[in-house]
Amino acid sequence: MTRYYTRVCNFYYGKKSVNLVNSKISLPLNGNKFISFDEIEIITRNSKKKIKINKIKYLPIDIKKKINKDIKIISSKKKNFSNLNFKKIPMIMGVLNLTPDSFSDGGKFNSFNKGINHAKKLLKEGANIIDIGGESTRPGSKTVNSIEEWSRIKKTLKKLKNLNISLDTRKADIMEKGIHLGVNLINDVSGLSFDERSLKIIKKYKTPFVLQHSRGTPDIMQKSPKYKNVVLDIYDFFEEKIKFLRKNGILHNKIILDPGIGFGKNLKHNLKLLQNISIFHTLGFPIMLGISRKRFIGDIANENDDKKRIGGTLSSGIFSLLQGIQIIRVHDVNEIVQGIKVFKKLLDN
Fold first, then answer.
1. Residue 52 phi, psi (nearest 5)
2. Can you tell me whether residue 62 is helix, strand or coil?
3. Packing angle between helix 267-275 and helix 310-321, nearest 10 degrees?
4. Any catalytic annotation for residue 294?
5. How far is it, in rounded angstroms, from Cα 130 to Cα 163?
6. Class of 91-347 per CATH?
7. Which of these, 37, 52, 257, 340, has the minimum number of CB atoms within 10 Å of its CB?
8. What is residue 100's predicted lDDT score, i.e. its pLDDT?
9. Among the options 254, 265, 294, 309, which is catalytic?
10. Element (H, E) at 70
């Protein structure tokens, strides 16, 4: 039996979007009139076809039923959580790595005062939430034990416990300690697969979390990753994982999806995901992208590559914004916020 997927496309923004929604020409994304769409792409494993939303009524009955169900999910308003407002997109997750070996800023902020000051700086520059981590998960990195990971982050978490904090960890005991210190979001790059106890912690505290896709552990994930269709394979992964979580008692909808750019993907995979990222709206959850300083930018830039990769981060961030992505995870908050402000102003017509 043929499986059909729905990807929304041809987005509008600002006043033009509001006018089109009010005229019933386009449909709002997540109930937000300031970003809307008037086309969908109907996808199977063997085909793609774009149609205007006003042509859906002419589709065969079974396909039409599926598409209308998907559009209802895509258009429905998202409930806010973790002190995040999903109507104000994109929101910015600022990165604070308290590690000696992260891929781009290892050792830069892993002293107490430097970490605190940088977190405050990121918030002042416009970050909506700070993602704090004590273990590097860069390609090729090795696992750090819980004692070492907690020792790197505990003082900073205690000092920042009244701020909006996400905790970047794969370990259940670190999650629980962080939740006790007021962490508002768990960001586990393994998709709650690394530590089998993580499900119990998320269930016990009903904590919001980021569900990320990755293939393999960081030490081996970039060794010849393969997919039949990277976009649809990851879509299916999310769908099955959410069903699995429901069966295991995690019933809340305070979930953010992250397709895991650079986590078990090569350049071709990453580009396909970014080009088709709006397909994940059909799953009904906010979407986050970790694109900051990633290797795919350097692969494209070649001789124009540099350590911070701000230009590539900004351009891929704005491209993602054009597909309605709700959260962008970045290191260089001020530069990215500046670029987005200018972009939005240019769209204001």
1. -70, 150
2. helix
3. 40
4. yes
5. 8
6. alpha beta
7. 52
8. 76
9. 294
10. helix 61-75
**84: DSSP letter:** B
Run of H or E residues at 68: helix 61-75
278-303 core/surface letters (b: 16 or more CB in 10 A; e: else)? bbbbbbbbbbbbbbbbbbbbbebeee
CA-to-CA separations, 322 to 16, 74, 274, 313, in angstroms, rounded: 14, 15, 11, 14
Bridge partners for 257 per DSSP: 211, 287
User: How far from each other are the two terminal CA atoms of the chain, in whole angstroms?
Assistant: 46
Catalytic residue among 329, 341, 344, 345: 329
- Report the distance separating Cα 94 and Cα 128, nearest Å: 8
pLDDT in tens, 94-139: 999 888 754 555 455 556 778 898 999 999 999 999 999 988 877 7
Which sequence spans correspond to the domains of the chain?
A: 5-75, 91-347
Ranges assigned E (strand) in the chain: 5-13, 27-29, 32-43, 48-52, 91-97, 129-133, 165-168, 185-188, 209-212, 255-258, 288-290, 327-330
